[in-house]
Amino acid sequence: MDPKGWRLKLNDGHSIPVLGFGTYAPEEVPKSKASEATKLAIDAGFRHIDCAHLYNNEKEVGQAIRSKIEDGTVKREDIFYTSKLWVTFLQPQLVQPALERSLKNLQLDYVDLYIIHSPVALKPGEELLPKDEHGKLMFDTVDLCATWEAMEKCKYAGLTKSIGVSNFNRRQLEMILNKPGLKYKPVCNQVECHPYLTQRKLLDFCKSKDIVLVAYSALGTQRLKQWVDQSSPVLLEDPALCAMAKKYQRTPAQIALRYQLQRGVVVLAKSYNEKRIKENVQVFEFQLTSEDVKVLDDLNRNLRYFSAQMLADHPEYPFSDEY
């Protein structure tokens, strides 16, 4: 099955490729690697590229996309590019300038999807993680409905085709959905999702509202010390997942990705390794039985690798609610 054809319809009439390429890498990885990996991904068949202002590599990712357009591999309309509004820009007047900055870095005229990276606002400014003299993050209070109106204006201005959110819980989604004068619903909610955190209730809620769930950390996590508890179990070493990989003669990563596709979830696969990039596109070549999907469902232990505990005191911290 050709990955280029697999898309899900969004509630605004556009469509999103169900398999996306994640571009985040830790600080110590040279930025040039993002460009190399994005080119490899496009060559392998990825058409959905997921990036963000926070990742600090939009220049390199944009350069890769443009070079693949220039060499005739793809046209601009073949690529579905996602960028994210960082949390220091949630004040309404900062939203469009933030998107314009991303577009300038990318050297693209529009993005396909622009999403609010997180509902937790931090103090506006150039610092990505502004801290006070005691090393504590400096919070900001923002009316997320006003932020959403500024996102709608970006869509209206043609700077992005679709708008969505990330790391929102049900309550925060409902706040947007119930906003008086809502013009556009969020098309998606991008959240951590994998067999240890299946997000069943949030997925059911999103489906009921015609919002696509997009899974990040679908293969577990890069286990960055700054964000992730180092004692947490390694998803891709799970015995049930490994047994299933053997049964299907696939990699544990391919099983974890395929699982999400069969649940109607858009899934992001992050790798800078050429062999694994090519393997990750092969998830369209096989299908899990419904019994095996159930086995993976039952691995759920509500384990959040990325709990962002340093944000837990913020009034909009999303992970205290059940979902």
Automatic annotation (TrEMBL):
Any one GO CC term of the record: cytosol
Segments forming a coiled coil: none
Domain NADP-dependent oxidoreductase: from-to ranges: 19-300
Pfam families named among the record's database cross-references: Aldo_ket_red
Positions of substrate binding: 117
InterPro entries tied to this protein: AKR, AKR1C, Aldo/ket_reductase_CS, NAD(P)_OxRdtase_dom_sf, NADP_OxRdtase_dom
Catalytic residues as annotated in Swiss-Prot or TrEMBL: 55 (proton donor)
Site, as annotated: Lowers pKa of active site Tyr: 84
An individual GO BP term: daunorubicin metabolic process
GO molecular function: aldose reductase (NADPH) activity; androsterone dehydrogenase [NAD(P)+] activity; bile acid binding; ketosteroid monooxygenase activity
Keywords: Lipid metabolism, NADP, Oxidoreductase, Steroid metabolism
Signal peptide: none
Family membership: Belongs to the aldo/keto reductase family.
Protein name: NADP-dependent oxidoreductase domain-containing protein
